[in-house]
Design goal:
heterodimer, A: 152 residues, alpha+beta, Ubiquitin-like (UB roll), DNA polymerase, domain 1, 5 helices, 5 strands, B: 777 residues, Aldehyde Oxidoreductase, domain 3, Aldehyde Oxidoreductase, domain 4, 7-stranded mixed β-sheet, 28% helix, AldOxase/xan_DH_MoCoBD2 (chain B), molybdenum (chain B)
Chain lengths: 152, 777
């Protein structure tokens, strides 16, 4: 069926099967491969996008359900080509990523979290991160990155 | 200012943070076909028949491939690591096959490959396949597998013994006779999985016009994959390009070669003349990507009255899973790493690797080292108690002295060289850790006060060594580009270790450029032809040293070219900030880019006997590995009602020789500790008696979250390695190695279990199992 989904402010119209996952739509239909897929059962959080501003697992939604909603992905975060936004910059400064596979999901979860709570403490940050799995960093430098943003 | 040794942020981050970095599943090609596999639902079963007609008939299905369709291409995989040259060694090579032809030996073994226009259709077609099986009894338990009447994983063998290796030196029996104390215990370490956030995947494309195959693969060893694929497919190496782009975590299992899918996807792309992609889903990953860890040790230690070790004897079983293509790396690591930081005059170690109807076992971060550390550290804890000695003191008394290096351990290590510790100084590490965790104060004041309040607080303190940076070799090519930037190309791949930064620091140190101007290329066999792989904490040591050597040669070429340009002596030149100038005349500088142009003249000739360009390639192959070491200390509180541990403080003091980038090093240690915590507390693969894995999802197999991993405090000592020009030792696995032993000791201490006659002798240790143990189970 033919659908139009707005992603990072741009409308994309495609003819898709009703069963196509939103994650596959983003990655393989419109080529926004920054959203990663780690488990396809909603646990790891790598595929987190913002759905009307709220974090959501794109592997647990069908693309057709996103019609009429505003989807944001990691590709929409930076203020311009070659630039980083303050959260992205803090991740680099604090070494908050290693392989970088979970990072887009982390950034999207934290974008929504910081919008709601711009100055969280460490315990709140860890709680907010607890739905996103990272196997490389042990989380400490990710927490440090968010603390930097919170202190700014 | 020099960049070497500084905590610089990473070159690779901006692309990853913007979602622009290429991972294997991001590769899209016109006409791409998608693969799904029908995998064995049984742990052990004879294949009677396969009916793929309905699958073939499904619209959108392009091909359905069984073992029979592979013809001569169907071959068991190669033996990646041959057995060690230990006299009397037994080894039965049984390698995995591309598709099951006769017998399935573990759940998840691929049986049929379906290629279709989409992954969705391919998975539909997998559901159309009908397979008749004769199920056979499965073996999972290591000891049951060795019973005379046990079902045979490979029925051409007369037992499930995959290998047996005995290494001994000194006279343990005499040591035990002379000992004041001999302790004998059984230790069990159960299976876990590495769970990188990115599963495995392979994309292959055959270009008939170029007569070349390109493969994108989530491998830790692209050059080895290239060479193997060329041989299997009847191609020259130059016809095969293997790219390991950004890899979403490796941790060892992506070093396994060859996975069936790595053999099948390129073959299919050539056969069908269309590009083919397979991406492992998480369920497949639990069955089809290799595991690690099951071992049972019967160990004993002999000590004198002062707590000095006289000898250790260890007999252990190692679960190798259904096949053993990775040889004996994991149990050899266990066997050798057990010796730890200590003088062990007599050592007698016998291991038996056992075939089971479970997923293959290959190295996962630590790669068997944690088992050895667990056994030795637990034995020392128990000996300290029996002798009335402090835990730190018994370790201190047995440390190898700082003037005893190089220290010959006289056992054969995983690289087949005689294990010799290159350098080390263990007491300062221990002292720093004791001080940082507040050891004396905790025991004298904090713990008694907590106990008086009914709180269960404990402390743990564990020492370890890690053999790192083994050969055979890596190489690197450094080249000054016309742009003035410097490229560094090496054959190993990167899975998040920060090579694009650490190697850039090594090169920048020699060439006086900003690290942002060093472009590091890893994991593309068209860019560099030679290499082994990223494993065994060897990237910085081996490839880093090669980069250093190559950069030194380029530095000489730069100075030589500049000396000719300025008509001065090389000694009068200053190389800094990407430019060369004559000392005292900084305004008349020539850039590296211009010098690169001068070194590659369009007319005239380069000086006879010289080569064009500011470029050099170097290789580095250490005769043996560099031995890193460390101490982890932890304060833990156990909730007496739920037995849930809360880590109150965690200290790592580590010595990996010269540090290239402390920020990246900290990240490596944090991540290792987190995996160690998972391994110690959360992660256990649960199997039923028929060999079915019961918790094959991330909802059931829990890995640590941000709420489970504590803030860690790190400190370092620096004992450079004499075996490489940088003085570095590996650090990738160090964080993970001692955590199990540390948890066991700290939990025992918190609950005062020894006073109740209870010891912790197994890992992992979730609350349920801990409760059983505290009840005497």
């Amino acid at each position: 069926m033919k659908i139009t989904i707005r992603v990072n402010g741009v409308g994309y119209t495609r003819d898709v099967e009703p069963r196509l996952l939103l994650s596959d739509f983003l990655r393989h239909e419109i080529g926004l491969t920054g959203t990663h897929v780690g488990c396809e059962h909603g646990v790891c959080g790598a595929c987190t996008i913002l759905w009307d501003g709220e974090p959501a697992r794109s592997c647990l939604a069908f693309a057709v359900q996103a019609e009429g909603h505003e989807i944001s992905t990691v590709e929409g975060l930076a203020p311009g080509p070659g630039k980083l936004n303050p959260l992205q910059q803090a991740f680099q400064d604090a070494h908050g990523l290693q392989c970088g596979y979970c990072t887009p999901g982390m950034l999207m979860t934290l974008t929504a979290f910081l919008a709601e709570n711009p100055h969280p403490d460490e315990a709140q940050i860890r709680e907010a991160l607890s739905g996103n799995l990272c196997r490389c960093t042990g989380y400490q430098h990710i927490v440090d990155a968010v603390l930097r943003v919170a202190a700014a | 200012m020099t960049s070497f040794g500084r905590p610089l942020t990473r070159n690779e981050d901006p692309r990853l943070l913007r979602g622009e970095a290429l991972f294997v599943d991001d590769v899209e090609l016109p006409g791409l076909l998608h693969v799904a596999f029908f995998r064995s639902p049984h742990a052990h079963a004879r294949l009677l028949s396969i009916d793929v007609e309905a699958a073939k008939a499904r619209p959108g299905v392009v091909a359905v491939v069984t073992a029979a369709d592979l013809g001569e291409y169907w071959q068991p995989g190669p033996l990646l690591v041959p057995p060690p040259p230990v006299p009397g060694m037994v080894f039965h090579q049984r390698c995995q096959v591309p598709l099951v032809r006769d017998t399935a030996r573990h759940v998840g073994e691929p049986v049929v490959m379906v290629l279709a226009e989409s992954r969705y259709i391919a998975e539909d077609a997998v559901g159309d396949i009908l397979v008749e099986w004769e199920t056979l009894p499965a073996v999972g338990d290591l000891e049951a597998a060795l019973q005379p009447d046990a079902p045979l994983v490979h029925d051409d063998l007369d037992s499930n013994i995959a290998a047996r290796v005995h290494q001994a030196r000194g006279d343990y029996a005499a040591a035990a006779r002379a000992a004041h104390l001999v302790l004998k215990r059984r230790f069990i370490y159960d299976r876990g999985a590495s769970i990188p956030m990115e599963t495995r995947g392979v994309v292959a494309s055959w270009d008939p016009r170029a007569d070349r195959l390109t493969v994108w693969d989530t491998t830790q060893a692209p050059v080895v994959i290239r060479n193997g694929l060329a041989a299997m497919l009847g191609l020259s190496e130059r016809q095969v390009r293997v790219v390991a782009p950004n890899i979403g975590g490796g941790f060892g299992p992506k070093m396994m070669m060859f996975y069936p899918e790595e053999v099948l996807i390129p073959w299919a792309a050539m056969r069908l003349g269309r590009p083919v992609k397979w991406i492992e889903d998480r369920l497949e990953h639990f069955f089809a990507t290799t595991h690690e860890r099951s071992q049972i040790h019967d160990a004993e230690i002999a000590l004198d009255a002062e707590g000095k070790i006289l000898g250790v004897r260890d007999v252990f079983l190692h679960d190798t899973g259904a096949y053993d293509p990775y040889g004996l790396t994991v149990p050899l690591n266990s066997q050798c790493t057990l010796l730890g930081c200590y003088v062990v005059p007599a050592y007698d170690s016998l291991f038996t690797a056992v075939f089971t109807n479970r997923t293959l076992v290959t190295p996962y971060r630590g790669a068997g080292r944690q088992h050895g550390v667990f056994v030795m550290e637990r034995l020392l804890d128990m000996a300290a108690r029996a002798l009335g000695l402090d835990r730190a003191e018994i370790r201190r008394r047995n440390f190898i002295a700082p003037d005893a290096f190089p220290f010959d351990q006289d056992v054969i290590y995983q690289d087949f060289s005689r294990l010799s510790y290159d350098s080390g100084n263990y007491e300062p590490i221990l002292d720093k850790a004791l001080h940082a965790i507040g050891y004396d104060d905790f025991l004298a004041r904090v713990q008694p006060a907590a106990r008086a309040e009914g709180r269960a607080l404990g402390i743990g303190l564990v020492c370890y060594v890690e053999g790192t940076g083994i050969g055979p070799y890596e190489g690197a090519r450094v080249q000054v580009q016309g742009s003035g930037k410097v490229s560094l190309v090496t054959g190993i791949g990167s899975q998040g270790q920060g090579h694009a930064t650490a190697f850039a620091q090594v090169v920048a140190e020699q060439l006086g450029v900003d690290i942002r101007d060093v472009e590091v290329v890893t994991g593309d066999t068209d860019q560099f032809q030679w290499g082994v792989g990223t494993f065994a904490s060897r990237g910085a040591v081996v490839a880093g040293s090669a980069a250093h050597e190559a950069a030194k040669v380029v530095r000489q070429k730069v100075l030589k070219t500049a000396a000719a340009h300025f008509e001065c002596a090389e000694e009068d030149l200053v190389l800094a900030d990407g430019k060369v100038h004559v000392a005292g005349v900084p305004d008349h500088a020539i850039t590296l880019g211009k010098l690169a142009g001068l070194a590659n003249p369009m007319r005239g000739a380069v000086t006879p006997g010289t080569e064009p360009g500011l470029e050099a390639t170097s290789y580095f192959g250490p005769a043996s590995g560099a031995t890193a070491s460390g101490v982890h200390a932890m304060l833990v509180e156990i909730d007496r009602a739920t037995l849930k541990p809360t880590i109150l403080d965690y200290v790592v003091v580590h010595d990996c020789g010269t540090v290239i980038n402390p920020l990246i090093l900290a990240g490596q240690i944090h991540g290792g500790v987190a995996q160690g915590i998972g391994n110690a507390f959360f992660e256990k693969l649960e199997w039923d008696s028929e060999g079915q894995l019961l918790n094959a999802s991330l909802a059931d197999y829990l890995i640590p979250t941000a709420l489970d991993v504590p803030r860690m405090r790190l400190d370092h000592t620096v004992t450079p390695s004499p075996l490489n020009p940088l003085g570095v030792k590996g650090a990738g696995e160090a964080g993970a190695i001692p955590v199990g032993a540390l948890f066991a000791q700290a939990i025992e201490d918190a609950l005062d279990l020894p006073a109740q006659g209870i010891e912790i002798r197994e890992m992992p240790l979730g609350p349920s199992r801990l409760w059983e143990i505290t009840q005497g189970g």
